[in-house]
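Residues pack. Consider this:
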Amino acid sequence: MLIAGLQKLTLLDYPGKTACTVFTPGCNFRCPFCHNALLVTQTVKDLVSEQEFFSFLSKRKGILDGVCITGGEPTLQKDLIPFIKKIRDMGFLIKLDTNGYKPDILKQILDNGLVDYIAMDIKASPEKYPATTDMKDFDFSLILNSIELLEKSSLPHEFRTTVTEDFHSEQDFFEILRLFSNDTPYFLQQFRDSGNLIDGGCTGWTAERMKKLHAELEKNHPDVHLREG
């Protein structure tokens, strides 16, 4: 398992839990607003070894509730499932972040009950995915498959979109909401420039405009929320 970074404590990444966060390198998307660009575009030289990670985790039993696995895109890691099993065997809860482009891996994880929470990014409205991800032959059916898998599962999950001026209009979000049911949590994340973007030209919506969008969407989708970036 390739581990590009370890945040030893987070109170934000896993809703309602105290956790650490594991960052995996590499991604199949090239979203300009990605705030972890170095994990996507460059080879990470100073990897954290599994031995080091599990040694850290063993010392956090009774202190941490869980582990967040994010990226990059974790489902690209060939050792992801064995890695998750090791964490679960230690008694920790597991949250997985994914872009949903590998529904085959997601199905294995769901079928075997390997994680406790999944957050799936919805990058844009369906027709804007090729431009947003820089993939000309984008297969949106893979995204739909992942949404369906999560919707049919009993696993706690959320969908979320990071909102930018460059790739999102108000109408896009009404199209996004049609992709899943009204009782599914959907989060609008305010874009913040981390200084580590694939494209430094991206800008976010103002807080006032985000609140107006939230109010409009909430009329049709009661479980929509604002989350600051």
